[in-house]
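Run log // design_07
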């Protein structure tokens, strides 16, 4: 009996939320008659026969329902939504007013005025190891090892030789303490505390995890963490002339969700990522809105015996 191999391919990203194609490799398939395409309503065509070795399956509603606070714009046939942060220059202009004015020169000038010029470098730091036995947040302080981890992270950031603009951190105790230790290695960099970056359950994960039940319901934490994403993760303001380097000290769930959203990956996959304590995740947001992930959960600067994931 021949060995059967199966592969399911599905695309259900943020920019559209629809499954484009599913295919299963099942070894050799019998040839099907006719190689012409059958027209769909509306004029598009679909192949009436699968290539050898492929069995075409109809699109399925395999993607879980999306939380209401996440916008999935209508698909345009592209995976990437260029206006994901609502800062695409054309989206910032009053087109009605444009028609009342003269010529395309005026439009070009206004578009240029709205364009970002600088690149934002976002460093997402997960807090260090903390006391899991603490009943209240104020009791969940860093462990001695956690303080060592924060020192190592601070030294690593300082060694990059970058001019950091600010450190924005979660108001929870473990993130605040991590920030205080890191900031000793980055003198003069202002610190800002925010409740938006507090730990929580951003969105129900897919696949689900039976042993993990968040204390707060998803729609409470999820809307707040999505608000953090919208507030902090976007292309540079048009007035910003130089590249910026910003540090965000927060939590694993928040960072994992932000990474999925920034890369326009399905946010339901956030729990598939894993981050060590004190790790560095580096996102780059270009002036044109393109986003790149330079590092995810880097702890290569720590000795092996100092690495934890709690």
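design_07 sequence
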């Amino acid at each position: 009996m021949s060995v059967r191999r199966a592969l399911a391919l599905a695309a259900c990203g943020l920019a559209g939320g629809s499954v484009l194609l599913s295919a299963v490799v099942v070894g050799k398939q019998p040839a099907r008659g006719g190689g012409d395409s059958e027209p769909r309503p509306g004029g598009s065509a679909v192949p009436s026969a699968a290539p050898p070795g492929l069995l075409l399956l109809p699109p399925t509603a395999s993607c879980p329902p999306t939380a209401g606070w996440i916008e999935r714009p209508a698909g345009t046939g592209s995976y990437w939504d260029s206006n994901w942060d609502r800062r695409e220059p054309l989206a910032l202009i009053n087109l009605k007013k444009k028609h009342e004015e003269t010529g395309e020169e005026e439009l070009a000038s206004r578009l240029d005025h709205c364009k970002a010029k600088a690149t934002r470098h976002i460093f997402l730091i997960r807090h260090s190891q903390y006391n899991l036995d603490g009943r209240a947040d104020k009791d969940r302080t860093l462990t001695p090892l956690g303080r060592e981890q924060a020192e190592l992270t601070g030294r690593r950031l300082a060694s990059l030789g970058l001019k950091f603009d600010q450190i924005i951190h979660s108001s929870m105790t473990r993130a605040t303490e991590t920030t205080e230790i890191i900031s000793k290695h980055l003198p003069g960099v202002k610190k800002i505390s925010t409740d938006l970056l507090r730990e929580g359950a951003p969105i129900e994960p897919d696949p689900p995890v039976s042993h993990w039940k968040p204390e707060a319901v998803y729609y409470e934490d999820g809307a707040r963490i999505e608000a953090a994403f919208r507030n902090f993760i976007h292309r540079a303001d048009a007035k910003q002339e130089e590249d910026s380097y910003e540090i965000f000290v927060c939590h694993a769930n928040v960072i994992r969700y932000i990474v999925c959203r920034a890369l326009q990956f399905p946010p339901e996959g956030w729990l598939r990522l894993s981050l060590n304590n004190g790790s560095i995740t580096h996102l780059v947001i270009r002036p044109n809105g393109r986003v790149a992930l330079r590092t995810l959960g880097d702890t290569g600067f720590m000795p092996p015996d100092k690495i934890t994931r709690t």
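The chain has a mean pLDDT of 81.
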